[in-house]
Amino acid sequence: MSEWPSESVVKSAQLGDPHAISVLIASSHPHVRRFARTLCATPQDAEEAAQEALVILYRKIGTLRAAAALGSWMFAIVRHECARRMRLTIHRPDVSSQVGLSAEEAVLQQLEMERVIACIARLAPEQRAVLIMRDIQGLSGAETAEALGIERAAMKSRLHRAREAVRAQLRTAVESPRSG
């Protein structure tokens, strides 16, 4: 895997050097795509989120305070883009599943979905990736293990821990208002 661009490249890009900007985007692209693939629900969303993150990098590189923080900054941008795309997917009305729902039921269903998304977003990256691949993208256990480069037993263990973590977060969220 290639390295993130050097601090001197980042600083030159911040000053508007066209060559540095080109190097910055080209060398950041593989990392951004990898982030997006582990965070987004679908390969299409991952590609679109990665492209949007690179556009944001191009437009806002001047706002980055510390050149050494580029990786963290880009990860946050990609995470935001993937979450935004997931919310858009969820907010698209599915008429077949909402027939007969009252406005109150539809709002409650939407709020519950947003809680689940927030719980998934808080998972460790390796747990989030396996959960998204298996439960959202619908990949088989073998496909998921192969995509992640791990043994099937390790994939099953991560998936179990991820599901348990989401359940625990949802239980805590439900119990918290009662205890306060």
Can you characterise this structure?
The mean pLDDT is 82. By secondary structure, this protein is mainly α. It folds into 2 domains: 92 residues, RNA polymerase sigma factor, region 2, helix turn helix motif (Rna Polymerase Sigma Factor, Chain: A); 79 residues, Winged helix-like DNA-binding domain superfamily/Winged helix DNA-binding domain (Arc Repressor Mutant, subunit A, Orthogonal Bundle). The longest helix is centred in the C-terminal third of the chain and has 28 residues. Helix 2 crosses helix 4.
Mean pLDDT: 82
CATH class of the largest domain: Mainly Alpha
Beta-strand percentage range: under 5%
CATH superfamily annotation of the largest domain: RNA polymerase sigma factor, region 2, helix turn helix motif
The third-level CATH topology of the largest domain is Rna Polymerase Sigma Factor, Chain: A
One letter per element, helices H and strands E, the order comes to HHHHHHHHH
Tell me how many strands there are. 0
Low-confidence stretches: none
> What percent of residues adopt helix (DSSP H or I)?
over 70%
Give a quick account of the main beta sheet: strands, pairing sense, barrel closure. none
What is the CA–CA distance across the termini? 48 Å
* Overall structural domain count: 2
Estimate the global geometry from the Cα principal axes: globular
